[in-house]
Amino acid sequence: MATVTSGVGGMKRLLIDVILLPSRLSRRQVSGVYHNVRDSRNIWQATINTARRYHPVSLASSFSKPAVAPIFVPFQSSSSSTFCKHKMVNSVETASVGAESNGCDNGHSAGQEVLVDTAASFKEIQIPLSWGHLAAKVWGKPNDHPILALHGWQDNAGTFDKLIPLLPSDLYVVCLDFCGHGLSSHYPKGMMYHYWDHIAHVRLVAEYFGWSRFSILGHSLGGIVGSMFTAVSPHMVDKLVMIDIVKPISTPARFQPDKSAKAIESYIQVLKKLEQNPPSYTYEAARERLVQANNGSIDSEAAEVLMRRGTKQHEDGGYYYSRDLRHVIPTVASYTAEQHAEYAKRVHCPLLLITAKGGLIYEDRSVIEDFIKIYRDVSKGGFQHAHVEGTHHVHLVNPENIAPVVSKFFSVDAEQAST
């Protein structure tokens, strides 16, 4: 049962000592799209234009009218399915970028989509971009109020599998795999990731679907990305939900040079690891390692949900984690709390902040409370704060604890629902 109180959000900073294979690039990959691009607007447009040039059909404003009628396939529930062991069949090729095989593709490969016939049906799609594609799991039918769901660090789009079926059936939710996560392409060799990349990609996803306005549902890193995107593009966001995260982690200015040095050293070490073969685990061992790495935030069932999109299978039958190891490299450049506060002051849309009682405390409480106050003061459409029972992954382990408040937030005017 959600209660309105002054809670503290959390963000896991947990690493799994695994090694990932470098991604194989698409034969249609276009290099150099960012060359000589001077600002973020041009970066977005240059990438969009490049994708349109090479994949003009697939960049329609909506996929609601596929080139080929979808074929329905049986759905396997989380309790009975074993990922990558029984692949779904009858996938239908659509106009999408041809990219690398994801190894454990759950019945779809590059350039294909699968529509699963369930009470709350979903569809797997790929969004073509210059370096490959972003994968997404889409629930519901297209409407005028789309919701983009963004997962946490080192998770994937499957993190919302338990929550979405509990939400109103008329919602249209696009669950994105961030680059280097889930079924999305990894960056080319040698590149580094930054969470600003994800912020730019949100804009690219909106361009792909032709969205002028949409809502965002974000957990942890996804909540950070959602809030920062809302700050830089406030005219595009209807509503924002942040699950167990309040703000990006800030770094005092005096610590930033040392942090940058450690990030570069980590980058060098990770590049060396990427030249090696990843370790192989039994299914049970891989699941247990994932549970332990999340330090009690997920259970075995939740781990299996994440593993469906987050693991691949070796030829010897063993499993390895498929997310890009480069995501463990610390951020080279950080912001201070004062800088982050300026972004927070631009989040004017209706905001639902959900904090878990068993979540992680990642920054001083006074800083967290300062940001909650900022949101409360600047939100013009209504600010709500629900403090609920659960862990950092409450939406995956105990989705029933947040489904009512999320449903109400998206179903009615936020100002009327605010407490």
TrEMBL record:
Instruction: Name all AB hydrolase-1 domain ranges.
Output: 146-253
What keywords appear on the UniProt entry? Hydrolase
Question: Is Hydrolase a UniProt keyword of this protein?
Answer: yes
The keyword Hydrolase belongs to this UniProt entry's keyword annotation: yes
- Per the UniProt record, which residue ranges are transmembrane? none
Listed GO MF terms:
hydrolase activity
Record-level GO cellular component terms: membrane
What Pfam families does the database record attribute to this sequence? Abhydrolase_1
The cross-references to InterPro entries, in alphabetical order and at most eight, read: AB_hydrolase_1, AB_hydrolase_fold, AB_hydrolase_sf
What top-level branch of life does the organism fall under? Eukaryota
Q: Which SUPFAM superfamilies match?
A: alpha/beta-Hydrolases (SSF53474)
Family stated for the protein in its record = Belongs to the AB hydrolase superfamily.
Protein name, as recorded:
AB hydrolase-1 domain-containing protein
- Which species? Daphnia galeata
